[in-house]
UniProtKB/TrEMBL annotation:
Single annotated GO MF: oxidoreductase activity
Organism lineage string: Eukaryota, Viridiplantae, Streptophyta, Embryophyta, Tracheophyta
Superkingdom, taxonomy of origin: Eukaryota
The keyword Oxidoreductase belongs to this UniProt entry's keyword annotation: yes
Name of the featured protein: Enoyl reductase (ER) domain-containing protein
Organism of origin: Cinchona calisaya
Domain Enoyl reductase (ER) stretches: 47-346
UniProt keyword list: Oxidoreductase
Amino acid sequence: MAEDAEVVKNKQVLLKDYVTGFPKESDFIISTENTISLKVPETSSGVLLKNLYLSCDPYMCLLMQNPDSNSIKESLASYTPGSPITGFGVAKVVDSRNPKFKEGDLVWGPTGWEEYSLIDQLDSLFKIEHTDVPLSYYTGLLGMPGMTAYSGFYEVCNPKKGEKVFVSAAAGAVGQIVGQFAKLTGCYVVGSAGSGEKVDLLKNKFGFDDAFNYKEELDLDAALKRHFPDGIDIYFENVGGKTLDAVLLNMKRYGRIAVCGLISQYNLDKPDGVHNLSSVLFKRIRMEGFAVFDYYHLYQKFLDIVLPYIREKKITYVEDITEGLESGPAALVGLFSGRNVGKQAIEVAHE
């Protein structure tokens, strides 16, 4: 470490202990005890980032659980109690010992929930080349959620003009993009959400053909039959549980289901059973789980499609941004009660 390197305070969000059930604000600690040098150590080939925006995403609750009690350890490393949690963010390079990045570069990718992060694993760090759109978009529309929507809808579901598409959690970071992709493809699309405000957004801002509040539906099977009397070709799955069970009854023959998330199940001691799996067999439904990381090689193709849509105002995006790292725990916990409207992100610092 250079002797003249400036050392600064580094506020962090720490996980207090492994979480059982739904996370609470009290499961986190805001720490101001840590300091960090503003130079990358000579022993590292990484980059030092000043975090500008942090993304709140449902999968993060799985990383809060004891790795001995869930299966997420097979693909992602759990958080360590007493250490900063991690997620996706937008940041500015303060110092670099890697030829791919230089001081002043703007990037998005995995980072810590702290003011400054030293990142050694750079495979998933993307340089931001287009700054004529809001930087916060790289936590959502132009970042991991946007790539998730693109890869799940186009690569997994292979949509065709005129098909009938259903999206659950449709007002969320991924769902709102999927619905707009469906409309741009010439599909009929219906979304479900958890409030009247969100249903209104789906129909009047995102251009969904129709939408409903699942909390007001006593019979989800009947609700789907009302909106899809001839059945569903494509289901973009974000919630699991009773919604998935009802959808299976309403899929068309040779329908496709992209399993992106199961947010209703993540914090349950005993996840809901799925009782209508016979539909997968008898209707020849293709149901495929996917991870966005497997499609990162398509990021430039994704940008080539989505950036013109944004500039031509063919795609719109709603964000729910809170200010300050200390607001992070409440924003993250709020995901699981549907408190956010649109993509939930935290503004840590101005550029």
